[in-house]
Amino acid sequence: xxxxxxxxxxxxxxxxxxxxxxxxxxxxxxxxxxxxxxxxxxxxxxxxxxxxxxxxxxxxxxxxxxxxxxxxxxxxxxxxxxxxxxxxxxxxxxxxxxxxxxxxxxxxxxxxxxxxxxxxxxxxxxxxxxxxxxxxxxxxxxxxxxxxxxx
Length: 151
Description:
It is a multi-pass membrane protein. This protein has helices at 13-47, 51-54, 59-71, 84-126, 131-148. It is an all-alpha fold.
């Protein structure tokens, strides 16, 4: 019988204990990652601009933003009657917004990847049909929940 990894022998309690401890720690890590991901998602949602600040009553301003997004350079029609400084500030704020969105997406993707990997590892550990490993996973999840979730 193979226990999680072939290099982890499970014949004696001294060699079995590290695998039980590792699964316990990974379960705690899994709960921590889920909390980090939830907090990061809430932070990202709070940093998004509100709908009232992204829309404008001026059609000329909306066409300027569309021209910047489409061509990455404002067209003459879009900037007609607008000072050059206003158009460049729209370009800078749009670029800054896109960079921040990319950073948020990358952070959320990395936390999701770690959460999925640890979750699949724990699932495979439990599927070894070993009662001690199952109890270790459950104890780690409970301890992680108690340590990292706010009540």
